[in-house]
Design brief:
Blueprint (H helix, E strand, L loop, with lengths): L3 E6 L4 E4 L19 E9 L5 E2 L16 H12 L3 E5 H8 L16 H9 L7 E5 L18 E5 L5 H9 L3 E4 L8 H10 L4 E4 L3 H9 L5 E7 L8 E2 L13 E9 L8 E8 L2
Parallel strand pairs: 3-9, 3-10, 5-6, 5-9, 6-7, 7-8
Antiparallel strand pairs: 1-2, 1-12, 4-11, 10-13, 12-13
NADP nicotinamide-adenine-dinucleotide phosphate binds next to strand 3, helix 2 and helix 6.
Length: 277
């Protein structure tokens, strides 16, 4: 694997090692006791697609033309700094169908052993805990079996189905109510997570969860990889889904890198953004 990428911002530009690039951000030290640091990450095509429909999958998946091992390495580095991952009910439904992108990090493949070691040195547990946002509570329990070594929290609305809540609790899963109706409100959810001691929260779900966090104005940082591929397609997903944000969320550029080595024959831009103002 080519070892370097080019920093375009802040100036002056320079060549930097890819490995360790995001670990330097020390995201696990940025949260406060009453306000965890909340970050998210997406890979998108140049025309804004994060997932597409393909004939061999029942659910939408990240296009193989944009996903690549260099971006995946950085995704693992972001996961390496989290004490909690936010996922969605849909991830586990996809997972049971064999259609989820991967198991939840931190990956224990040899290529990522340094990230596990780094976590250990930083005093973080070997794996981040897992929060599942769901209104329907249609969460297939067998899909959670691989994660029972960690604390699993399910976050739902006040009017979630009581029988499903009891069933989850019966399986040792804590259910947190943070929102009216069946929907989760990010403004209520983050304080609930803070009181449970979480300081660095990595949202790895998709557009609905990201929208929930944006609407609550609790996103502290967005890592966005823009693979230089144009995909087209009629049914598309982009990084947020929900009514127009009013006002729009301005984001300022913190860092920008160019990676000429993936996807093959294209390249990618790696941006890091924070809310403006
Ligand atoms: N390219 C990328 O970087 C990237 C990153 C992430 C995901 N993706 C793709 O995006 C697609 C969607 O991913 P996803 O399903 O994990 O993400 P999502 O659209 O964020 O999550 C959808 C599910 O999350 C729950 N949910 C979201 N907001 C909620 C709220 N405020 N209150 C209650 N429940 C809420 C709902 O679960 P219930 O239905 O259980 O109520 C909903 O069905 C997938 O195809 C994935 O491959 C791409």
């Amino acid at each position: 694997m080519q070892k370097t990428i080019t920093r375009l911002y802040p100036l002056p530009g320079e060549q930097c090692p890819l490995e360790g690039l995001y670990l330097q951000h020390q995201l696990h030290t940025r949260g406060q006791a009453d306000r965890p640091f909340v970050y998210s990450n997406f890979i998108t095509s140049l025309d804004g697609r994060i997932a597409i429909r393909t004939s061999d999958h029942a659910t939408h998946t990240v296009p193989s033309s944009i996903g690549n091992p260099r971006d995946w390495r950085l995704y693992q580095e972001l996961a390496g700094q989290a004490d909690l991952l936010i996922t969605s009910g849909r991830f586990y439904r996809q997972s049971i169908m064999g259609e989820a992108q991967d198991i939840l990090p931190v990956d224990n493949k040899p290529a990522f052993a340094d990230i596990s070691e780094w976590r250990h040195k930083q005093g973080l547990r070997s794996q981040p805990d897992i929060a599942i946002i769901s209104g329907s509570l249609d969460i297939p329990l067998p899909a959670l079996e691989g994660y029972l070594d960690r604390r699993i929290l399910v976050i739902t609305g006040a009017e979630a189905d009581r029988e499903k809540v009891k069933d989850l609790q019966h399986h040792g899963i804590e259910v947190i109510h943070a929102g009216n109706g069946k929907q989760v409100d990010g403004r209520l959810m983050i304080p609930e997570l803070a009181t449970r001691g979480y300081r660095s929260i990595y949202a790895i779900a998709g557009p609905a969860v990201f929208y929930t966090l944006l609407k609550a104005r609790v996103v502290d940082r967005l890592y966005l990889t823009i693979a230089q591929q144009l995909l087209g397609g009629d049914v598309i997903d982009t990084l947020t889904s929900g009514p127009l944000l009013a006002p729009a969320q301005g984001m300022q550029l913190v860092q920008l890198y160019h990676d000429a080595h993936a996807p093959a024959n294209a390249g990618q831009l790696l941006g890091c953004f924070e809310p403006a103002g």
